[in-house]
Amino acid sequence: MNTLRYLTQSPADLFWPGVLTLFWPGVLTLLIVTAICSLLSVVVVLKRMAFVGQGVSHAGFGGVGVAAALGVATSTPATLAIVLAFCLASAFLIAALSRRRDTKPDTAIGIVLVGAMALGSVLLHLAHEWYPTERVPGWEGILFGSILFSGWADAMWSAGVASGILALATWFRRPVVAWAFDESAAEAMGVRVGTVRTLVLILVTLAIVLAMKLVGVVLATALLVLPGATALALSDRWRAVLTLSMLVGLLGAASGIVISFEADWPSGASVVLALVAIYAAARGVRAVSGRR
């Protein structure tokens, strides 16, 4: 049974002190992560990096397996550091393989994805044998996350990392925008496209690792794709797209939480389904306006 549904009988119960302490840290963390993912989503969609994000997010499963095998699965800071390092290594490996003439980008992503998933599966199995008394992460928690089990500490470090991502994205916004819209022209204007590509890859990886704890490996990429795709379906102006992307992401997150409460559905999946519904509505609006 949904933990929130078990503890509350009506939406008003969410504001009881006990429930407030349990529930709202996760909601705040979700909104923070959704906001930063929504901003990066525009660049991800423009540069067709969705499958790269998919590969990196699934590589996080391997990172969790490494952390479990090292016996630090219950230590959140150490686990996050290991998962982040593993995801960054996977992202750079995908980029390196994609630059080879004999390897297509989708092939490189597939190789890293399945390799990381298999490694994570084996290491988690071994961790259960090596540390029988320790709390080793389960498949469901890794794949689908858990919003409600986030605390105020999670909200604080999420806000810190998100602020760092936002600061870097703002500082390098001009070369990033030029690279996102026309890589060849940006290079001709003196933009170091290789450096910008690496920077964006690092920022996307950081956002994915943040999102993984909330919505899990499977659904983390959705936060980096759906808000930007929806915004680009409604507008082609840069500032309008950024604003719309953030609004769509936050609306999807809030709607997903409400759906999770009312229907007793998993929180992470509810958020993604809400974002999918908003995207479908945006495509419908664009189709109707196009006919007119």
**Uncertain runs:** 10-20
The CATH first-level class of the domain at 20-217 comes to: Mainly Alpha
Mean pLDDT: 81
In total, how many beta strands?
0
CATH fold naming of the domain at 20-217: ABC transporter involved in vitamin B12 uptake, BtuC
Question: Which CATH architecture of the domain at 20-217?
Answer: Orthogonal Bundle
Q: Could you say which overall geometry the principal axes of the C-alpha atoms support?
A: globular
In short:
The protein has helices spanning 3-7, 17-46, 50-69, 76-98, 105-130, 139-144, 152-171, 173-181, 183-188, 193-234, 238-263, 267-291. The chain is mainly α and 292 residues long.
Polypeptide structure, described:
By secondary structure, the protein is an all-alpha fold. It has a domain at 20-217: ABC transporter involved in vitamin B12 uptake, BtuC (Orthogonal Bundle). Helix content is 82%, strand content 0%. It contains twelve helices and no strands. The chain has helices at residues 3-7, 17-46, 50-69, 76-98, 105-130, 139-144, 152-171, 173-181, 183-188, 193-234, 238-263, 267-291. Helix 2 packs parallel to helix 7 (152-171) and helix 4 (76-98) runs antiparallel to helix 5. The termini are far apart. The model is unreliable at 10-20 (pLDDT under 50).
